[in-house]
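FAQ: What does the model actually see?

It sees only this:
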Amino acid sequence: MKEKSFSCDRATMQWSLFLLLLMGQCVFITCQLYKYHFIKEQMSWDAARAYCRENYTDLAKVFDLTDMRRLQDSAQNQTEAWIGLYNITGGDNRTWHWSLPGEEYTENKTCWGAGEPNDKPYPENCVMKSEKCVDVSCTQKYPFICYNETMKGNKTFHLNETSVTWTQAQNYCRQHHTDLASGLDQIYSEEFKKLQNSTALWIGLFRDSWRWSDGSNFSFRYWDMDSFNDGLDNRTCATTLLERSGRWSSDGCDQRKPFFCYDDKLILIRENKTWEEALNYCRQKHHNLVSISNPEEQRWVQERAKNASTPFVWLGLRYSCTLDFWFWVNDKLVCYERWASGGRTEDCSMSAAMTTGGQHEWVSQRENETFNFICIKH
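And it is asked to produce this:
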């Protein structure tokens, strides 16, 4: 599939729609739902957070490697800068995460072996799966299974029989595929079971006590293990080492450094409206109903959706009976999809909504239903 990029003006959006009809090509439009700002002035972590909250949204949070590249591109010739990650020290504050960005951890006792996770005889923050899940030290070595997903949702697994540490396994999967196998749907799938064949393997489950400043549940971590100190010696705030591929380290929060802020262009409207009413509201008071073109944007939108008061939130995705395909209201092409199984109904007067709980997948809804919705700000 060929990829082309265009700016966000209306003419090029209409041109992209024409390309879809003419050639079936996938056109990625370079609008952003959020923007990073590099601040050269050196401040402590707390002062930097206060500055970002006053002038933008908050200290920068990072969804994946794409965001890391954006940070690096906006701060040339700099060595180190604060990001919005900090450590709530203490073992009881650790939280389980899946390594794959966007995959949320929910407590499920059926995954764990008897008495697990037991955290003995020392902190055990990574998970190995044989018949059941077991928490072990991240420095132990096991083979592993990587997960790969294309923009169109094609999913494959890849077994690597080399025994490495959990961090090495994660790095390999992110470099050559998408990530370590993550989520119960993946590790209980028939494809995974065939590759595992009762072998003890790393999976993408880990825990730590690091939190994002704005309260987001982003699980992405990018530590430089040579310099990382996991909250010890009061090094409880995170920095990005821009000269070391953006890898992260930790430092005392009172140290003065430049920093990254982010500016969020999404706003959740907690009013119940039909799809047409939601579209008109967003266009009159903001910019438009939200469109989603990649996994990063999906993750940022679902963070907003969690706070809705309805079981779904409207998206700017509508089905055309005349043309017999789905299209975004800003004329973006549907290059990325997140439909729930059986959730897509192609019928007149149908638009897409995101579930506000669970996996935040898309489902078709009649346009006369009333839900909360998410707008893009100007």
